[in-house]
């Protein structure tokens, strides 16, 4: 004990001695002289007469009378039109908004030239436009034009290079100096400098170009798109690779790169330096000199050793097992590895100075990537090490969201480009930056529905609000006034949450007069609808509550059931919450999707014959899906149910929710829902056709299965019925 | 190294076990040595930070006493501004270096008076606003007085208003600054660019590579990612105190208050007024004011006099039209009044547009669409208008109200470019405090259903009930999706049983010994947890069936960001006592689940251990109670979501245990638990728990269906 005390004392003294020797001098100076010495030259002086200083200027416009009057705004606009062309184009000067006014935002694609095949990628781009809801085959109603000539590859040394584009486009009567045209390009310039040169005069056309250099990018006019490979899927697209959210990120490597090193020419300086940060442990940065035919001519001392190391690692393995991936510039600014890293949830560390990032107009890349500087490569390891684990997790999730929302297929890339341009036409009806950067993303949040974040079903938490506490019941009636319908209207109207009842009258006979309807406490309105099944999802202006209770005339629900389901919906406003359910499955024998509404342990579809959902889905159904798909839904049994469920699942990536219902009702449902076609004897061939066609349009199967049902907390428990709030659910 | 990454990967198991007495000695000794070294280092290597922050010597000097510099007529003039400049081409990042604080260092040149060869001064020495701006920079943490350590240089030559200076001579003055070097890393502040008759949209003073923080850029002069667009400061911001006015309907729908409007605009506005009557008000300068009334503070319409800027608070939308220049000081007044600006100035780069989302606070209308303004504004949803009003006021408070706010926002933007990985997020820039407070950003925001194959890790916290523990292990190991079992041995005085005594199970079983008997050990993010899903289970929970547990896991997969548990509990507001009350009766509602057996994401272990607000973690450890309530609070607060209670299970007590705790014990228990809720609610500053009326059951639960065909036939009872 004594020894320890002594030891402590000595250390104590030693440390103070050390302090005094090293810092004592400063300490003394600080203590005694700082007041007098430092003051005069340190911070910005407090001037004695600072309150007497004059203001920098008259806040109002200087309107001295001697000056000539300022130019007329109209004249200024006219002058601007002629002055800002070509490389100084902006929407105000080079785009004719007038073309978009009558027919809205419509896109026309030129017919493809005979004998001039387009590349696979360009074929996909054109197909995406033609699949989109903005496509028009008539040039006179078009607002935006897309060339039929393949302009993707403008590298003169490339096999896909199309010569004499200038002459061809000048021959097009619609070209008009490029006004209202959109030109796609993936590769510009050629060896050795890879400039932004396209080899023809774009004129006033907008450029949707990969590897955009910030300096030649015309802000608010051009669109920067990602470089995508030839085999990028047309639609749907692969999912991201993130399967788990781990904190701290448990990956083998912190930072990885594996790629070519250019020995000469543009882009070589960045890639030549990459080997410096390789530490063989958690940072793997590998380069090879092998590229091109004559690499050995330029070979340097590192090459051989590097080439050996290079072969030791697999690129895919690094992608999977690294937290950060270096995405340096290649010859051009963008590279395939950007999208590859994004998909792999490997956070891109960009080393590509001056690259206008893909869709930078709307995407906040600071949430998904580390934008490094080529000049500060050596700081990258310490910089990424300092990023908090929570932030890494957020980054990883954001890469997955962005990949899935905007990049995973050519359709998404092209549609995002179109939506960005469309948003510019009506700035006051465009998406805010928030909508673009929070799931489900800009393509699925339609500004035509609302520009207010709180009006959408998926932003309540971020917005700090909650859905309205009433619902609108929308009953679809196809036969003359029947007893079940009257009972249903009465039961629903008794719900304390019911705001109004709308009857969509889809019957040949005229709707009955007001006095025939039951006397109820909430307003009842009859809307005379068309005959189509998909009419039930039209965004009727009369629906003002956030929640819609969609009903068929045959559905039989009690007030308790409605109340409980609505309370559940308020917890899950982005999903469909309802009663009768069915499910999809992969039929391996027939190699197609199967559908069943038999009782199973899983469900993925909640029938809209009795379901709550957000009114936004009416707008999305009508505004997002192309007319062809909606017509399909009208023709096949239960197809509008399937389509609605698929659409909501595509938005939420989550299953619908089934809630408790009285038992005898459930048994009756399968027969009642869709008349005879759905009886079990004949299988569900129409539903299956529908399901497969819808999945084909989406390019994947969005439906997600759930194994649970939500019941009231005391449901069927052996406690007194009097305790239970929803006791009517218990009745046998 | 970064101070942030102090995440301890090993956990309490590795803390050396020492007797408390000795440890105190060691800790004291250690901290003294450490303190000594730190202090030495500070004085030795960081003299400036300490001295300059303490330097409050008041300088009693006049701005007119500063040194005079004579500029020869042939002194060099910088190149005109280079439109192609970007950060990576014209900015020298090497000057900024890497530092753990991620803050750039800004140097201010000392004030001088510049005169030409004939002794005529080049400009006004310094304006009040520019002096305020430099003072703000000097007081900020960006400031350095060491020119060699600076990353950014701010000249004291005042170029806020181009009309008060001589262009060529000012440029010459800039060029002779000691570190000018073609303007590299120099930042100029200008609010009123251009002059008659053309009114260029950027400062005309040749400035070579210098960055320009300018008010009134157009898209053609603004170098995106290089320049910073700033507001035109309105002196009324400092003079007039307009209390914030709550959102809601206001008297006028559209108001125009600018005086120097071009006649063409004015006639268009008046046409709008004629069309829409009272709801549109177009004001003009007053012509018949009595003497002594400042003209800037009054506006008139048909001889009716209005107070300015107070009248702005009477309008929902306020028009901000371009004048000769694009940037208008009225924008600041409009924002201050919480009026939604309607910006009609084609090609104008809005202030701080690099970071501020103006769509949330303003409506931008192309000049050509002015006649349609009324209908465009009518289409804005009412709720959105209210938010825009709040947002407008917030923008003013945060970024417009003073020269200081403008200066700091500008520096922060440049700072964010240089240290992008430490940049301030969109939400921090844009969300008003009220929104930051009420909104929730779920850290697990990606809708992702984890693959079933991943399974879950069960964590059993145990002290010495070995027999019961072994039963729990045996029971839990029957659950198909269990992938690992972790026993947290919380007893320091007793060793865990030998390896051979443990039950043999099909998955790996690991025992972690802890340094102290703390409840929080249950929620430590052990490295051994390799799955996302964690099942926390007490060492006496043996009544849960395998189906029940497996189903619980399946439910968690569908709600991976929530607590999924069995018995539910509720918090209630006790109106008599005016505080929260814990409720364990079998109610129709739940707001918490017990963590005696609950599934949750491993991430919440990380949060519980490292990010628990206030002293809750230690408080729980000291009181040996309520760790489950704390976890419920934490998860609900960070996700904004409710718990999921699964299956009818209402209690954990086995029938034979109920006899043990009597009624009185139960009551003290309830009081303690209620206290916990009140304590946590006060630390969190809110009540994050969400009350719901549902629980999750298997799809076919209690349905009339053959039991053997059900996935989870054996769901236990109450």
From TrEMBL, chain A:
Catalytic activity: 3-O-{[(1->4)-beta-D-GlcA-(1->4)-alpha-D-GlcNAc](n)-(1->4)-beta-D-GlcA-(1->3)-beta-D-Gal-(1->3)-beta-D-Gal-(1->4)-beta-D-Xyl}-L-seryl-[protein] + UDP-N-acetyl-alpha-D-glucosamine = 3-O-{alpha-D-GlcNAc-[(1->4)-beta-D-GlcA-(1->4)-alpha-D-GlcNAc](n)-(1->4)-beta-D-GlcA-(1->3)-beta-D-Gal-(1->3)-beta-D-Gal-(1->4)-beta-D-Xyl}-L-seryl-[protein] + UDP + H(+)
GO BP: heparan sulfate proteoglycan biosynthetic process
Annotated region (Disordered), positions in chain: 55-76
Keywords: Disulfide bond, Endoplasmic reticulum, Glycoprotein, Glycosyltransferase, Membrane, Signal-anchor, Transferase, Transmembrane, Transmembrane helix
EC assignment: 2.4.1.224
Domain (Exostosin GT47) ranges: 103-384
GO molecular function terms noted in the UniProt entry: glucuronosyl-N-acetylglucosaminyl-proteoglycan 4-alpha-N-acetylglucosaminyltransferase activity
Protein role: Glycosyltransferase required for the biosynthesis of heparan-sulfate (HS). Transfers N-acetyl-alpha-D-glucosamine to the nascent HS chain (GlcNAcT-II activity). Appears to lack GlcNAcT I and GlcAT-II activities.
Protein name, entry field: Exostosin-like 1
Organism: Anser brachyrhynchus (Pink-footed goose)
The organism's taxonomic lineage, starting at the top: Eukaryota, Metazoa, Chordata, Craniata, Vertebrata
UniProtKB/TrEMBL annotation, chain B:
Membrane-spanning intervals of the chain: 24-46
Function: Glycosyltransferase forming with EXT1 the heterodimeric heparan sulfate polymerase which catalyzes the elongation of the heparan sulfate glycan backbone. Glycan backbone extension consists in the alternating transfer of (1->4)-beta-D-GlcA and (1->4)-alpha-D-GlcNAc residues from their respective UDP-sugar donors.
Main subcellular localisation: endoplasmic reticulum
PANTHER family: ACETYLGLUCOSAMINYLTRANSFERASE, EXOSTOSIN GLYCOSYLTRANSFERASE 2
Family, similarity comment: Belongs to the glycosyltransferase 47 family.
Species lineage: Eukaryota, Metazoa, Chordata, Craniata, Vertebrata
Broad class of enzyme this protein falls into: transferase
Localization per record: Endoplasmic reticulum membrane; Golgi apparatus, cis-Golgi network membrane
Species assigned in the record: Anser brachyrhynchus
Protein name: Exostosin-2
Subunit structure: Part of the heparan sulfate polymerase, a dimeric complex composed of EXT1 and EXT2. Could also form homooligomeric complexes. Interacts with NDST1. Interacts with GALNT5.
Reaction(s) the record says it catalyses: 3-O-{[(1->4)-beta-D-GlcA-(1->4)-alpha-D-GlcNAc](n)-(1->4)-beta-D-GlcA-(1->3)-beta-D-Gal-(1->3)-beta-D-Gal-(1->4)-beta-D-Xyl}-L-seryl-[protein] + UDP-N-acetyl-alpha-D-glucosamine = 3-O-{alpha-D-GlcNAc-[(1->4)-beta-D-GlcA-(1->4)-alpha-D-GlcNAc](n)-(1->4)-beta-D-GlcA-(1->3)-beta-D-Gal-(1->3)-beta-D-Gal-(1->4)-beta-D-Xyl}-L-seryl-[protein] + UDP + H(+)
GO cellular component: Golgi apparatus; UDP-N-acetylglucosamine transferase complex
GO molecular function: glucuronosyl-N-acetylglucosaminyl-proteoglycan 4-alpha-N-acetylglucosaminyltransferase activity; metal ion binding; N-acetylglucosaminyl-proteoglycan 4-beta-glucuronosyltransferase activity; protein heterodimerization activity; protein homodimerization activity
Lineage: superkingdom: Eukaryota
